[in-house]
Amino acid sequence: MTIISSSANNTYKKSPLFPYQEEGVNFLMGYDKSCFKGGFLLDEQGLGKTIQTITALSKLYDSGDIHRILIVCPAIMRATWEQEIDDWFVLPKDWSRLPVVQVITKKTEAVDADTTICICSYEYVTARYNKKSLLTENFDAVVLDESHKIKNPGSQRTKACLQLLLHDQTKVRILLTGTPVTKGVDDLYTQLRPFYSSADAVRLLGKSIWAFREKYMYKKQSLFGTEYYGCKRPDELKSVLHDVSLRRKKSEVLQELPKLLHERVFIDVPQTLANESLKYVDIAISAVMGDSWKGVDKDTVEHVSIMRKNLGIAKLRGTVEYIKFLLDKEDSRYEANKKKLVVFAYHNDVIKALHQTLNFNVNVRTEYIIGETPADKRQEIIKKFQSDDEDAPQILILNILAGGVGITLTKAHTEVFAELDWTPANIAQAEARCHRIGQTEDVNVVFLLAKDSLDSHIFKVIERKMRVLDTMEL
Questions:
Q1: Sign of CA pseudo-dihedral 183, 189, 192, 194
Q2: Any idea where the domains of the chain sit in the sequence?
Q3: Do 2-251 and 260-471 fold alike per CATH?
Q4: Most CB atoms within 10 A, among 190, 276, 279, 346?
Q5: pTM value?
Q6: How far, in Å, CA of 277 to CA of 215, rounded?
Q7: What is the chain's pLDDT, residue by residue, as a tens digit (474 residues)?
Q8: Which are the contacts of 291, defined by CB distance < 8 A and separation ≥ 6?
Q9: β-strand partners of 343
Q10: Class of domain 2-251
Q11: Which residues have CB under 8 Å from 256's CB, separation 6+?
């Protein structure tokens, strides 16, 4: 439990918002087409959605429009939200109303009576869905960070969050994500629902996600049943989306932001393994394109999973050699012993093996973050990596999911993907850790692919899906 200190106002005065961020604040404060403020903020990663949201909430709190705020975010982001609130929440004129912030870290923890701003995880909200206990806390502002996490209308998580968002007491509804569509346009259905009345939701979105798919997606019959894909009414869907959302791209508002460059590097792996990985390549490609393994037998799914991990392990030697090449590469911008790299991988076994090899065999200062890394240790590692300390790590290895959101790593301008995530949005999220406000150099993203294998074939699918999503201009 913390009370926001006066440092918040000082920080705010020292670090004024960019003009586009002021626009975002005004959007969140002034949206009232459905009799409530808030909105769907979709700025690209790295443009400061958190800062805009906190500033807007502080002004609404100061004006008396809201009194109690619930912020729901991935567990890894709780500490970040707490720090950003302390830095950016503009203090109310009435100092007797200084906000009290509570960060929920245990599923059994209760919300204190004097809490003004409660920060909790999606898991916490889900655990309280059936009991409806959070509905009695009188939160009149609800924020969902990384709102694409409620894309599945049938999940307990989605039902719990919509229960809060659609409750009569909720006056301000804010959803934040840089990747509203992670797989298909039907990801938008539950994220758009909070911004429309029941009648408008039925008219514009449909009575259910199936009606939404029938209206906005193509369909085909396959061995696995009906599959929905693409977008058959893009202009109409864009209109529905844009009526309630605000989206800015880095290229539009930060012309001075360095470029994001991509490169592929192919690594040799044993030919027998490469050939074995291709055994079910057609099924894997179909599943990734359709975003579903529905209908694929369990043995095939397990085989693909094993091959995916084996390829990551087989690339270890080549990955280490390539990292050594980058560290030894002449670069006038960096002293050799201060060059920093960010490495992403999918499997924790691969991450730990890379850490072990680089830290002890290659003698390069290395740290890693995976899902089980405690929140306080994550913050400590990130802070150290971002510092100029002599003993700061040169290489930070991150699990793509655990380290792909809510982290700023602008001390590095090279990112190496030792493994792929098969969801394009997760890759985009990870890329944005270095390519964001504060970066002064072009960011080079290198994908290490196992030659002539499932790895390289899936990468082509991912590239194709990224182009499809770009056509939606989301």
A1: negative
A2: 2-251, 260-471
A3: yes
A4: 190
A5: 0.69
A6: 38
A7: 665 654 444 433 335 788 889 999 999 997 554 455 899 999 987 788 999 999 999 999 999 999 999 999 988 778 778 878 988 898 888 878 889 999 998 888 999 999 999 999 999 999 998 888 898 889 999 999 999 999 999 999 999 999 999 999 999 999 999 888 888 899 999 999 999 999 999 999 999 999 999 999 998 887 767 888 889 999 999 999 988 999 998 778 777 678 888 888 888 889 999 898 888 888 888 777 766 777 777 888 888 888 889 999 999 998 998 898 888 765 545 454 568 999 999 999 999 999 999 988 888 899 999 988 888 888 899 999 999 888 899 999 999 988 877 788 999 999 999 999 888 888 888 988 998 888 888 888 999 998 888 988 888 888 877 765 555 555
A8: 183, 184, 423
A9: 397, 416
A10: alpha beta
A11: none
Q: Which two tokens stand for residue 314?
A: 């087989």
